């Protein structure tokens, strides 16, 4: 099976600034693939290159086996793109946004109307079909943008930060729809700086930082490789959490001191917490949880994902 | 200039069809409010025709043009107002509206994620601007025939000329839109458009300016449009009109090619 996306040493520069600094990526059909990283990691620049709206500065890039520099229109005909910022057509209704967009792909009008009706059903916007875009909530707009990205029945769907800026309920609704797509076998490529999003949706992901890929694998494999099974989060009443680092020595495999809390990376959280109490350190709050991609990122880059 | 544009039209399979989709999108945004805006655009040249053409014309009487030909002042001004309305229709669509769609509605960002390319968007928008300009022109030609300022046959002949004028100014407007940075620059466009309107042989024959200025007037695209349409409407067609057509075609070719290129630069970073 040929990869839908194949990149080797892919580079994107804007003047002196290098946004993407030589990345290697392969995405197979049917996969849900993620780019995880903080703002400015180069995720969106990568997505725009994959979407054939931004020419690569260097390296090899093949999308659906074709060259974006030469075959842009042919590639884009088979892509569905959900951009980071909604760019719905505010002069059209919800339904017209889908039918008009379908026309841009050369889809005949009757097919466009039928597909628009199905997709509005899929993203639960049928009741708002005749409404303008502006009065819709953020979550509804995002769902409409996702529906629009599906109007040409794409082989590959690109989602740039699909739930950024949405409230938790709206995010879950979007996740649920994306999960349905994934189950239908649609290849999804998404960027996110939410570790829970990456964990829920991605079969495989790369962690990006400063335009480079710093780790690659399934969410579970990344956690196993770069973190411990459990984490103890301690918050101390003191101004400087750092003063406790010495007193916590020897409890954890690794100790991270953040401005507002201390993280202990351990195999057994309850044991470690008991030891903290035995030393009479009295944290203001304590939480034992499983390791997440956030911890992987912190370990790999020394920084948190969401600043 | 067509050699710049024409290969693009034929080399992309279905390129004309794809730009037609952009025009189609604009047609589907037509709602009742839009017609009010469009009626406003037609009103301006009609008001000028009545205030200056008919009003001031009564004081001036007949005008003697070079070659000794006499023409009533209203008949002299009317074709110029027609050219000006074709210009303003096309410019309104390709400057203010086009810029808004590109920078603020992010409309083209969405369209460029489909097989449609920057050049095709430019072409589709231009055709749309031309349609709008043509609606103005057709309405104005009807007024001219009703007022006996031209014959129905000449009006029919003048119509394609107004379409060319709309195309040329649309391409010019779109080029300007891809070069300007902010809404503030629209004041400059407005001022430029008004200067063209006043000094393009619209109200006064170009021959009445001193030679240095006359040269400046004669390279103005609106002067070329006025000269073309006036020639047809008064039935005086000659080599000058051939020059006018070539001038406007060149403007169209350069404008379309530059704006398509600039859109690619701006939107496909």
UniProtKB/TrEMBL annotation, chain A:
All residue ranges annotated as the ABC transporter domain in the record: 5-235
Family matches, as SUPFAM superfamilies: P-loop containing nucleoside triphosphate hydrolases
Keywords: Antibiotic resistance, ATP-binding, Cell membrane, Membrane, Nucleotide-binding, Translocase, Transport
GO terms, biological process: response to antibiotic
Family annotation (InterPro entries): AAA+_ATPase, ABC_transporter-like_ATP-bd, ABC_transporter-like_CS, ABC_transporter_ATP-binding, P-loop_NTPase
The organism's place on the tree of life at top rank: Bacteria
Family stated for the protein in its record: Belongs to the ABC transporter superfamily.
Protein known as: ABC transporter
TrEMBL record, chain B:
GO BP: response to antibiotic
Chief location: membrane
An annotated GO cellular component: ATP-binding cassette (ABC) transporter complex
Keywords for this protein: Antibiotic resistance, Cell membrane, Membrane, Transmembrane, Transmembrane helix, Transport
GO MF: ABC-type transporter activity
Highest taxon of the lineage: Bacteria
Residue stretches making up the ABC transmembrane type-2 domain: 36-264
InterPro entries for the chain: ABC2_TM, ABC2_TM_bact-type, ABC_2_transport, Nod_factor_ABC_transporter
Its membrane topology: Multi-pass membrane protein
Subcellular location: Cell membrane; Membrane
Presence of keyword Signal: no
Pfam family, one: ABC2_membrane
Transmembrane intervals: 33-60, 80-100, 121-147, 153-176, 188-206, 236-259
Protein family membership: Belongs to the ABC-2 integral membrane protein family.
Name recorded for this polypeptide: Transport permease protein
Organism: Actinoplanes siamensis
């Amino acid at each position: 099976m040929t990869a839908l996306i194949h990149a080797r040493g892919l580079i994107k520069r804007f003047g002196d600034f290098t946004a993407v600094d030589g990345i290697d990526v392969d995405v197979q059909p049917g996969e849900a693939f993620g780019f995880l990283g903080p703002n400015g990691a180069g995720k969106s620049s990568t997505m725009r290159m994959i979407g054939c709206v931004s020419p690569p500065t260097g390296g090899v890039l093949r999308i659906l086996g074709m060259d974006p520099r030469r075959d842009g229109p042919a590639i884009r005909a088979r892509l569905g793109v959900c951009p980071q910022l909604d760019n719905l057509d505010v002069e059209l209704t919800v339904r017209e946004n889908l039918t008009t967009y379908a026309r841009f792909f050369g889809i005949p009008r009757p097919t466009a109307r039928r597909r628009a009706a199905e997709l509005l059903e899929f993203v639960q916007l049928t009741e708002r079909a005749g409404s303008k875009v502006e009065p819709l909530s953020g979550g509804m707009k995002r769902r409409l943008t996702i529906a629009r990205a599906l109007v040409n029945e794409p082989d590959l769907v690109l989602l740039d930060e699909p739930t950024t800026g949405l409230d938790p309920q709206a995010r879950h609704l979007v996740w649920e729809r994306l999960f349905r797509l994934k189950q239908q076998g649609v290849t999804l490529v998404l960027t996110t700086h939410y570790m829970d999003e990456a964990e829920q949706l991605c079969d495989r992901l790369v962690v990006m930082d400063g335009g480079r890929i710093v780790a690659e694998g399934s969410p579970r494999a990344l956690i196993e490789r770069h973190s411990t099974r459990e984490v103890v989060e301690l918050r101390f009443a003191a101004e400087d959490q750092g003063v406790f680092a010495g007193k916590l020595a020897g409890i954890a495999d690794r100790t991270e001191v953040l401005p507002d809390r201390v993280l202990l990376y351990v195999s057994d959280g309850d044991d470690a917490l008991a030891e903290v109490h035995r030393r009479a350190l009295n944290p203001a709050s304590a939480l034992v949880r499983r390791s997440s991609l956030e911890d992987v990122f912190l370990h790999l880059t020394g920084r948190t994902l969401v600043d | 200039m067509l050699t710049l544009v024409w290969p693009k039209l034929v080399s992309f399979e279905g390129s004309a069809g794809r730009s037609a989709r952009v025009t189609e999108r604009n047609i589907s945004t037509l709602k009742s409010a839009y017609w009010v805006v469009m009626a406003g655009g037609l009103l301006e040249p009609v008001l000028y025709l009545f205030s200056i053409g008919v009003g001031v014309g009564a004081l001036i009487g007949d005008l003697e043009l070079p070659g000794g030909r006499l023409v009533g002042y209203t008949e002299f001004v009317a074709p110029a107002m027609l050219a000006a309305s074709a210009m303003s229709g096309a410019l309104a669509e390709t400057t203010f509206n086009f810029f808004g769609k590109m920078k603020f509605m992010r409309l083209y960002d969405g369209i460029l994620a489909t097989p449609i390319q920057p050049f095709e968007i430019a072409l589709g928008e231009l055709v749309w601007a031309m349609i709008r300009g043509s609606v103005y022109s057709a309405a104005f030609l009807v007024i001219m025939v009703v007022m006996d300022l031209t014959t129905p046959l000449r009006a029919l002949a003048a119509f394609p000329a107004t379409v060319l004028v709309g195309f040329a100014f649309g391409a010019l407007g779109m080029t300007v839109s891809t070069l300007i940075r902010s809404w503030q620059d629209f004041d400059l466009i407005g001022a430029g458009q008004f200067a063209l309107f006043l000094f393009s042989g619209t109200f006064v024959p170009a021959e009445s300016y001193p030679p240095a200025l006359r040269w400046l007037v004669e390279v103005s695209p609106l002067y070329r449009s006025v000269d073309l349409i006036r020639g047809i409407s008064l039935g005086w067609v000659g080599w000058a009109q051939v020059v006018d057509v070539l001038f406007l075609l060149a403007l169209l070719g350069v404008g379309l090619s530059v704006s398509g290129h600039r859109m690619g630069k701006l939107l496909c970073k």
